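Supplementary Text 2. Reproducibility record for the structural model of the 65-residue chain.

All settings were left at their defaults, and a single model was retained for analysis rather than an ensemble. We include the record here because the model underlies the residue-level annotations in Supplementary Table 4.
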Amino acid sequence: MHNIITQLRQDLLHLTLMEQAELTGVTKSTLSRIWKGEIPPKLETIEKIANAVGKTVVLTKQKKK
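Retained model, structure tokens:
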């Protein structure tokens, strides 16, 4: 999950936090806390961020080894 968040954040680095919030529909406070690793993002939030940068996130369940 961390890799997904890192990639999405890189896609938004050229924008200010305010612009990121406006583009994604996620509050500045929530985005800031996610980027800092203070809170894990909800799946809905990940989808909003991904959609804002033109990406789709597909999560799959891995089998236990």
